[in-house]
Write a structure and sequence with these properties.
Length: 174
Amino acid sequence: STYVTPVLGNEVCFAGNIDKSVFLRYLIPKLGKIRLNLYGHMRCSLPIDKNVKYYGIFQPENVSVLRGSWGLIWDGESIDTCAGTRGEYLRIIAPHKFSLYIAAGIPVIVWKRSAMAKIVIERRIGLTVSSLYDLEQTISRVSEKQYHDMLTAINELRVEVVNGMSLKRIFSII
């Protein structure tokens, strides 16, 4: 599998159980200029339009299939905040897709109040948002230089992740 370097743009990928990601129903009608690439299990019908592409299920070890400028980590029933049990869970845990996007070399977008936000800011590997309503505006403010710096930082982590170092060790989390 060939690694493809992402480029700055408004293409956001979301990998996960799409059926359980209730917020997507609310996000899709509000995408504006954002293009959304979905990967994972999907039985429910979502309002798929020109801004949304569904790529199906992929093998987790084959992260090279993921396409997008950004990898979104969000959960719950709302786009205003990470609400509900699943959303609140992000306050205390970094889900599998966090390391998945790092392994794919894709800068991440996370909830400002998630357990990952501090890491994302300190390591400069992506963006934090308080609401998905801020998504388009936050992405549009990123310069080519800022994005290049994010790619450099995430690629340093990518090498460590794909070589088997645990995220706990990389981020010195206990």
